[in-house]
Specification:
Two copies of one chain form a homodimer. The first copy, chain A, has three domains: about 80 residues, Winged helix-like DNA-binding domain superfamily/Winged helix DNA-binding domain (Arc Repressor Mutant, subunit A, Orthogonal Bundle); about 150 residues, Beta-Lactamase (2-Layer Sandwich), CATH 3.30.450; about 80 residues, Enolase-like, domain 1. The first copy, chain A, contains 13 helices and ten strands. Chain A is elongated. At the A-B interface, strand 4, strand 5, strand 6, helix 10 and helix 11 of A face strand 4, strand 5, strand 6, helix 10 and helix 11 of B. Chain A binds a DNA duplex through helix 4.
DNA sequence: TGCTAGCACTCGATTCTACCGAGTGCTAGC
DNA sequence: GCTAGCACTCGGTAGAATCGAGTGCTAGCA
């Protein structure tokens, strides 16, 4: 179902040079005009010294092989998902326009603030650069070690557990106790928690001394609450940028609705992106990603690697006839710059 | 420009009983059907024993007075913004449907977690209850007192300042120093910061001892960074719920785009809502709120009062022909329940 | 064998016309 | 003051005619 950069079975997936040129011309033209592309247009545009009639013959063949489709008998051809796939697989990677490069550099030299803010604004930037709706998924590294743990007494039975990680992440959790907790106990518990947890990660298991004085109960509860955080994907933050672009690039209100409601479900977005990363796919066209409501869209992702480990991804979503070259260039460039920025300032600047 | 609940000049704004009935019938019918409303429909529906012809005469008069408009000569009437305004002003406040009441109760008894999460999910709930896109603006109370301040050493010159407030808010700020800071200095500074700041609010000014050892410099820097937070509106968090509803309730893609791009601008949303609260307006119809791109929409807001002080608002945005009664009921009910919830558990549960 | 010119054909899109009917405004009469 | 009646308006719909882009096929040429 999903194809990668390299062709799978050369018999079908490799076209002879002329067919390839024609296919690419059709895709390029269609991306540009959003209209079915006729044989004459192709013959003119892609200058292989050949008449429209010949092009037509080739197109029939391309249609039989599933790369092109005809909306109706007397119209031009439009690419199928398979056609786009071929196009994307044979795309030489493009460069970002110089104005955009400048904008990008400008943004990342100027940007400061907490990670979350940076991610949010990066998302907006990417949307603006690419012209499509963007997604930035930030994985709060579960590998990060704990730098500090602190219990703060909010009310008699409400404690707030504030944990600071080595990557600058701060998590807060409520800890509710059955007994009232006084200030001294809280401080005491904080100290013990620090001794217990600093240097560990959320993935490590720690031995909690099981006495039953109120301080120990509090500590046990706090550790439990903190470790409950781990297993789910929920600690991945999603930032959507340029949601209004959805209404620009799709012309059917129904599609707009569907895409928006997918984007509303953070978990869905995260798993879509992660799935693609897991499979090593950077572009998913049409139904390739397996999310039915998005079958008329294409998704482009680029991973973010901070110090060699996966730290999330940036993504773009648009119609299948999106400007792949530019979009992929934008996504890659942004993800690289973002990664660099995150490496440069561990957790904020 | 903006009207309130009470009529302004009774000469124009108060209609005689029959006209009022007719106007209300037109509005109600139009909200229901989205079609221009004819005299016959009104005569049947609003049962004042009167013929369509009479209704027609009244409608001409209502049109002259600006309450109704005719899309074209031989069509029925649709309400103008002024017509909707009259309708809303004379609406007796409705009750939430019992199923929805149940859903609401269910939600708020079951909900737990950090404030941000609650607000986010409340926003989704409100969207679902009302059928329109919702906005929840949470003001992180600048009146809250500081419970704890802590500096954590991220890297040599990167400190993370973690501040916990009495309402459960946790803020983090990066503090960058020119000198390397060792662990001991960091702890030392934390203690002094605590002594200095605990019990104060972001609004109070504190005297920072101005010695020039590295610890004192660090402290001064930390206080400066923290207080820099105050003046803007940026500490108000905005949660949008049901963004995809925009594509359901507006039928022009262009309107969808405009509304979405407004919603993208958090600051705009906040000031829109705050402006309405300041003016004591709960419904803004058409151009009443003064945001041109939203001139074909209506906005309904309800303030959130926690322990008597303003703590934000919930809002809904839809077409001017939205179901005001239900929507206002939903907004009020949700804001009340949310306020109660926030009072019940100061900053977490 | 491969390419191309020529040509009949298809079928969506556009335009035009006729027409229907919902709804109006007006007038005359109760 | 209300209403029945009626001529009138005008958007929406349906059908016919037309247009034209683009096809598929065939025959002929290199």
């Amino acid at each position: 179902m999903a194809r990668r950069g390299s062709p799978r079975n050369s018999g079908e997936s490799d076209l002879d040079a002329r067919k390839a040129t024609i296919l690419e011309a059709v895709v390029a033209e269609h991306i540009d005009t959003a209209q079915p592309v006729g044989s004459t247009a192709v013959a003119q545009h892609a200058d292989l010294g050949v008449s429209p009639a010949t092009v037509r013959n080739e197109m029939v063949s391309l249609e039989r092989e599933g790369y092109l489709a005809q909306p109706h008998t007397s119209a031009g051809r439009i690419p199928t998902d398979k056609g786009y796939r071929y196009f994307v697989d044979h795309l030489q990677s493009g460069e970002l326009g110089s104005a955009q490069q400048f904008q990008l550099r400008d943004f990342f030299t100027g940007v400061r603030g907490e990670v979350e803010d940076v991610l949010e604004r990066t998302s907006a930037l990417l949307a603006q650069l690419s012209g499509y709706t963007s997604v930035v998924v930030g994985t709060t590294a579960t590998h990060a070690t704990i730098l500090s743990v602190q219990l703060v007494n909010l009310e008699r039975r409400h404690q707030l557990l504030v944990t600071v990680f080595s990557d600058g992440t701060v998590l807060k959790h409520s800890v509710v106790t059955t007994d009232d907790i006084d200030y001294a106990t809280c401080v005491e518990a904080s100290q013990q928690l620090n001794a217990l947890l600093v240097g560990t990660t959320l993935e490590s298991r720690v031995q909690v001394p099981s006495r039953s004085d109120s301080s120990s109960l509090l500590i046990a509860e706090a550790v439990a609450v903190l470790h409950a955080e781990r297993p789910t994907r929920e600690d991945e933050k999603v930032f959507i940028g340029g949601a209004s672009k959805v209404a620009e690039v799709f012309d059917s209100v129904e599609t707009v609705r569907q895409v928006l409601s997918i984007l509303e479900e953070e978990l869905l977005v995260v798993s879509l992106v992660e799935d693609m990363l897991d499979r090593g796919v950077s572009v998913a066209i049409g139904s390739e990603h397996g999310y039915a409501p998005l079958s008329s869209t294409a998704v482009v992702v680029a991973p973010i690697h901070v110090d060699g480990v996966a730290a999330g991804a940036v993504g773009l979503i648009g119609p299948t006839r999106m400007k792949y070259q530019e979009v992929m260039a934008a996504a890659t460039a942004v993800s690289k710059n973002l990664a660099q920025h995150l490496e440069g300032s561990a957790g904020g600047d």
